[in-house]
């Protein structure tokens, strides 16, 4: 008797998220990248219905995750590297000679530079340089959704660091 074939159920796929995230962390060694790749995997897998044999949901998700990770690493190799730090003398970053504002700006820039690289690049592009989400996504060669999630997490980390 042949195995039962069914569509990948979104609810069943969601049950595997923690395990898939653990696989992504093992593949990448980065919690942030693992989260992004897991999110992209679910976006790709759930965008089109797929027929699977019973019990094949998780192995299928792991294969899809490996493909997403391989695509990510290939695009990373082609991506130009952003070099340098924030130019504190840039006219848009002026504090108009106010020493208190200069001290606060210096503290903010220090904490921005201490963010993990993925968050730092997005925070610098959007909040410091004033690029839109779309412009940032194109510049960094990442999806707009990834820009928004990294910006949110980067801002949260920055707020915690500034509050401490």
From TrEMBL:
PANTHER family, from UniProt? ECF RNA POLYMERASE SIGMA FACTOR SIGR, RNA POLYMERASE ECF-TYPE SIGMA FACTO
> InterPro entries, from UniProt?
RNA_pol_sigma-70-like, RNA_pol_sigma-70_dom, RNA_pol_sigma70_r2, RNA_pol_sigma70_r4_t2, RNA_pol_sigma_r2, RNA_pol_sigma_r3/r4-like, WH-like_DNA-bd_sf
Signal sequence annotation: none
- Keyword Glycoprotein annotated: no
Residue intervals of the RNA polymerase sigma factor 70 region 4 type domain: 112-158
Q: Which UniProt keywords apply?
A: Sigma factor, Transcription, Transcription regulation
Molecular functions per Gene Ontology: DNA binding; sigma factor activity
Protein name per the record? RNA polymerase sigma factor
């Amino acid at each position: 008797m042949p195995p039962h074939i069914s569509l990948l159920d979104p609810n069943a796929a969601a049950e595997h998220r923690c395990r898939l995230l653990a696989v992504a962390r093992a593949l990448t060694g980065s919690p942030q990248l693992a989260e992004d790749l897991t999110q992209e995997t679910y976006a790709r897998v759930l965008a089109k219905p797929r027929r699977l044999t019973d019990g094949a949901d998780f192995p299928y998700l792991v294969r899809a995750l490996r493909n997403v990770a391989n695509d990510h690493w290939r695009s990373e190799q082609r991506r130009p590297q952003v070099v340098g730090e924030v130019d504190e003398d840039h006219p848009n970053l002026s504090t108009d000679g106010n020493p208190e504002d200069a001290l606060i700006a210096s503290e903010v820039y220090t904490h921005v530079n201490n963010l993990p690289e993925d968050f730092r690049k997005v925070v610098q592009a959007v909040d410091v340089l004033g690029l839109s989400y779309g412009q940032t996504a194109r510049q960094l060669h990442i999806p707009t959704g990834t820009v928004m999630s990294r910006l949110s997490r980067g801002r949260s980390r920055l707020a915690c660091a500034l509050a401490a």
